[in-house]
Amino acid sequence: MRILKSAAVVLGLALVALPAAAAIKAMTLTELMGITTDVVHGKILSSTTFRLDYPFEGAVWTKLSVEGDSMRTLAPVKTDVVFLGSHEAADRFTVSEMPTLQDSRVGNEAVIFFYKDPQMQGDSRNVVFALDSIYRVETAFGSPVVVGKGEGFAFPENIKLDDARVAVRAAHLELAKKAGK
Prior knowledge:
Elements: H1 2-17, H2 29-34, E1 38-51, E2 60-70, E3 76-84, H3 101-104, E4 109-116, E5 126-127, E6 134-140, E7 143-146, E8 159-160, H4 161-179
Antiparallel strand pairs: 1-2, 1-4, 2-3, 4-5, 4-6, 6-7, 7-8
């Protein structure tokens, strides 16, 4: 009996020690920009939720209306972006990888990465990937600062908004050069 218990403990510890199969992929700024359509610096004007049976039945999405400028092209942008999940208690649908409420709150200034999903139904096909796609902008010492999210994110540390613009533009030009554009 003692051997059986010991074997169960060893097996349990071995299972816990295995790396998790599902994880968020760490991405540099250039990698994130390589899979997104645009990066917008702007203000979140409104937030609503809606149900859509995509990518599975009963899914709830959050739609943010955003106005600002493209950090890739410098053009003015007024668009809606969506992400899977909701911060609304009544929706009862949260996703661990969705952007935080603190980052996606109405009235916030933010830097938002999104891509156009041709399979997305409805009026907004601009999809925000996950928590690594919305970065809150705060004022620190009189300057706007993009709040970093730690190692493995496009902005791992806090960075001045002007420096973030330069980094995004440089990454955009690097990607365009690699693509031959």
